[in-house]
């Protein structure tokens, strides 16, 4: 498979291909890639900029509210976000806390954050960055690592940095796609080179334990097809552990068992066959088809299903740096949302199905009332 976010400048370019193999660790049950591309290779061209999204903003507000009510955040908290991207979450949080600082390795994205007023260091967060932060200011007591742990081949280096700074009354919040829901809902398109680890509460507990940290609470959310929000503290912290933690670990013996993983694998083929035949029938009947959301998930889905620009003429996306480029392997051109709304197709494949309700509402409010939607996950479904 080509790296999902290596968007091409020309449809003729042959994308670089690398093995994409998902394995299950028999010792800690973690799902992970058998082959990881180095960060330098993987992030040499970085196109992911957090979109403007009603559902994301709602999620940020829920998380902030939850943390204030749970006593995890206070008006004088100093906050550090690892993998802060363009700073959308910190912008929402900063009016409520003492100070915020972001750390992100993607130069272009850090530029966007800084221009919008979010103080951000351009680096991979690890022990040396933690020491630099400790030397220059009052160390943070609240840490966020939202949807970035899975992208890191060496998460223990990041955790070493957190452990160095985290006080006993501090908190680390990890938000990540939840492996048990990925498997339950046949989300095989979550598998791409950037996602090196597919965490469960079991595997995250083990990883955190090795860095002197322990999980005290976990909340399940619908974000991105099912995510976990994990609250962790130092091993010496006096905070007690919520019952949810042992309960989820216990459930995962079933939800992430080898037989469930085997079902997940065969379900991917069922979806592929269903999507291929749906799209073939619609095309033969003379319908026009486009996709919505030039997601990394979309690259996995389209390549796995061998769908190309012959089947899907274009893919709309709001991220301006993606527009004018082509989805690797599929060769589908990425267009602006406005271009899509000007000449809507008969059917739209929702490659960003995790924003389903929001995208359908957006298409309808742009006046495209007759477009029908193909939802690929958890099973192929048409929404009229
Ligand atoms: P995301 O689901 O985070 O994808 P992945 O992690 O699989 O790459 O990305 C959502 C994509 O959808 C992103 O490229 C922006 C795009 N998008 C729109 O084009 N319009 C919208 O209204 C929203 C919410 C997202």
Structure notes:
By secondary structure, this protein is α/β, with parallel strands linked by helices. It contains 13 helices and 16 strands. It has helices at residues 39-42, 54-69, 88-93, 107-115, 127-136, 155-165, 179-184, 201-210, 244-255, 258-284, 296-304, 337-342, 356-365; strands at residues 22-24, 31-33, 78-82, 99-104, 120-122, 142-146, 171-177, 197-198, 213-221, 227-234, 289-292, 315-316, 334-335, 347-350, 372-375, 381-383. Strand 14 (347-350), helix 13 and strand 15 form a beta-alpha-beta unit. Helix 5 runs parallel beside helix 6. The chain is globular and about 65 Å long. The two termini are 32 Å apart. The model has no long low-confidence stretch (mean pLDDT 95). The structure holds thymidine-5'-diphosphate (TYD). Thymidine-5'-diphosphate is lined by residues 48, 51, 53, 293-297, 317-319, 337, 352, 354-355, 358-359, 362.
Secondary-structure map with pairings?
Layout: E1 22-24, E2 31-33, H1 39-42, H2 54-69, E3 78-82, H3 88-93, E4 99-104, H4 107-115, E5 120-122, H5 127-136, E6 142-146, H6 155-165, E7 171-177, H7 179-184, E8 197-198, H8 201-210, E9 213-221, E10 227-234, H9 244-255, H10 258-284, E11 289-292, H11 296-304, E12 315-316, E13 334-335, H12 337-342, E14 347-350, H13 356-365, E15 372-375, E16 381-383
Parallel strand pairs: 3-4, 3-6, 4-5, 6-7, 11-12, 11-14, 12-13, 14-15
Antiparallel strand pairs: 1-2, 2-8, 7-10, 9-10, 15-16
